[in-house]
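Colleagues,

For the teaching module next term, I've prepared a clean inverse folding example: a structure given as tokens, and then the sequence designed for it. I'd like students to try predicting residues themselves before seeing the answer, so please don't circulate the second half yet.
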């Protein structure tokens, strides 16, 4: 009879230790998963959740709310949410984000495990230079917001880590006679880009 109690007691202790070990293992796996998360992963999780309408980004001395439309390899594009009906679109290099301002719910949403991307989404593979080259090809007037101010013009060419901007007044077509000056701007100085 005593042996039966002893074995039951040992079996209970072993089950508790195995459960504790499994809990520790799950906690360690979760720590490893969180350690592999990138800022892009967290923004993608917020973007995929229908409950999250907009994301507030701290960019240098600017704070903008963006409704993400697409998230690329090192950039995000979306609609600026500023209370006006102008419907401005923007492109934000992920490197220019100082912080993502979130509430408690958004923190939880951004940490939810996401399905692995299969690489078939084209935007996930495209870098900032590709997006800027597309704007250059379209000859689209842009407003570049940098740490030193806002520059208006048309992108003439895009290199690996910089762009050439022909500065001209907003609302004026890019013609040689309208160009005030040319500016070569490293991507790292770009805070974000606005499209009207």
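(Answer key — instructors only)
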């Amino acid at each position: 009879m005593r042996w039966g109690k002893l074995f039951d007691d040992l079996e209970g202790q072993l089950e508790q230790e195995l459960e504790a070990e499994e809990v520790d293992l799950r906690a360690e796996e979760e720590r490893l998963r969180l350690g592999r998360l990138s800022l892009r992963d967290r923004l993608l999780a917020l973007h995929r959740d229908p409950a999250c309408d907009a994301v507030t980004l701290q960019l240098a001395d600017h704070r903008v709310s963006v409704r993400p439309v697409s998230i690329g390899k090192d950039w995000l594009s979306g609609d600026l949410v500023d209370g006006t009906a102008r419907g401005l679109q923007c492109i934000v290099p992920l490197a220019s984000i100082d912080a993502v301002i979130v509430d408690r719910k958004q923190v939880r949403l951004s940490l939810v495990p996401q399905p692995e991307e299969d690489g078939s989404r084209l935007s996930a593979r495209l870098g900032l230079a590709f997006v800027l080259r597309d704007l250059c090809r379209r000859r689209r007037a842009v407003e570049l917001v940098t740490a030193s101010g806002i520059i208006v013009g048309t992108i003439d060419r895009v290199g690996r880590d910089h762009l050439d901007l022909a500065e001209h007044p907003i609302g004026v077509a890019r013609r040689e006679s309208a160009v005030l000056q040319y500016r070569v701007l490293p991507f790292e100085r770009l805070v974000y880009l606005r499209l009207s």
